[in-house]
Amino acid sequence: MAKSAHAFRTIGEVSDALDTPAHVLRFWESKFAQVRPVKRAGGRRYYRPEDLALLCGIKALLHDQGMTIKGVQKLLREKGVRHVADHGLPPAAPPRPRLVSDRAPAEDAVLVMERAPETAAPPAAAPAAPAAPAAPVSQDTEISPISAILSADRGALAARAARIAPLVERLAALRDRMIAARENRG
User: Fold this and answer.
1) Per-residue exposure over 66-99, b if at least 16 CB sit within 10 Å of its own CB, e if not
2) What are the angstrom distances between the C-alpha of 23 and each of 3, 48, 105, 146, 174?
3) Cα separation of 162 and 88, whole Å?
4) Span 120-179, pLDDT tens digits
5) β-sheet bridge partners, residue 96
6) Residue 61: CB partners within 8 Å, gap ≥ 6?
7) Taking all residues of the chain, what is their mean pLDDT, rounded to a whole number?
8) How many angstroms separate the CA atoms of 111 and 127, rounded?
9) How many H-runs (helices) and E-runs (strands) does the chain carry?
10) CB 14 within 8 A of CB 26
11) Any idea of the CA torsion for 143, 84, 73, 62, to the nearest 10 degrees?
12) SS3 (DSSP) at 166
């Protein structure tokens, strides 16, 4: 089962997604303070989607554009994390496969190509009677985790963040109460 685009990733998964060795990712963590994966008790790293986007931008600047580490550090200081992360985005989102049903129970779903939302091309209509229906293809196997993260609609992400903000506040208040209770006991 594929992970959600918003799931945390291990260093191995990030290494595979970026086609960059794990030791290079750890080196970049030492050079770029903005890359801060969550570390668990055993020292295992878990990268957030924004860490992955930033690493993708760093890789693009270092490897594709030939910048130096100091140059990328300066760019991060002057322009910010979002600017560097945007360098890792593909220039135009490629079409991605999507299953479209003709709503007729007797017909199979057909595979059509759809442009990513940011390219604003209207989706293709399903043919009335395909000569040879395409086998259903799971979207999870067709789109890599990195492309799913990078093609995420920023408006949809902001809406989700707004929906979970009250829960995050409640969790922070609960954490504070638990810390206060622990301090009162000891």
Assistant:
1) ebeeeebbebbeeeebeebbbbbeeeebeeebbe
2) 23, 18, 52, 19, 37
3) 26
4) 444 444 444 444 444 444 444 455 555 555 666 677 777 777 888 888 888 889 998 988
5) 114
6) 67, 71, 72, 75, 84, 87
7) 74
8) 10
9) 8, 5
10) no
11) 50
12) helix
In one letter, which amino acid is 37?
Answer: P
| 151 DSSP 8-state letter | T
Rounded Cα distance, 26 and 45, in Å: 10
| Cα–Cα distance, 11 to 55 (Å, whole number) | 12
The two tokens of residue 2 are 């594929």
The radius of gyration of the chain from alpha carbons, rounded to an integer in Å, stands at 21
Q: Is 10 exposed, middle or buried (0-12, 13-18, 19+ CB in 10 A)?
A: middle
Residue 166: per-residue pLDDT: 86
The CB density around residue 117, as the number of other CB atoms within 10 Å, is 14
The DSSP line for 76-112 is HHHH-HHHHHHTTS-SSPPPEEEEE--S-TTSPPEEE
Tokens standing for residue 5: 């685009």
Which of these, 7, 44, 38, lies nearest to 148 by C-alpha position? 7
